Amino acid sequence: QVQVVESGGGLVQPGGSLRLSCKASGSIFSIWVMGWFRRPPGKQRELVAKITSSGNIDYADSMKGRFTISMDNTKNTVYLQMNNLKPEDTAVYFCKAELESYDSSKTDYWGQGTQVTVSA
Known about the structure:
Elements: E1 2-7, E2 10-12, E3 18-26, E4 30-39, E5 46-52, E6 57-59, E7 67-72, E8 77-82, E9 91-100, E10 106-110, E11 114-118
Parallel strand pairs: 2-11
Antiparallel strand pairs: 1-3, 3-8, 4-5, 4-9, 5-6, 7-8, 9-10, 9-11
């Protein structure tokens, strides 16, 4: 059993900051990639950023410069620092952990999501 749990969402004013955390726990052999996705109201889920266990990072173009992803391998935890938030950043933010098994197969595990609302 693997659990992926996000935290840190909430209501913030435009221009404000939030830090999301996501911890993977349970029967973990190896973490391959952890990432953040979001689903704005009425829209499809989209990539925000992802990071490999070796530290390679990808951002969606619209997030570059405002969002920073990082990972603490010792805690199986990934963070998303979000600065200068805008109303269009309002969304449910989901964490995904892509775990590698002993036989090199990979499985995705998703968290339940955390709501981020940017509003005055």
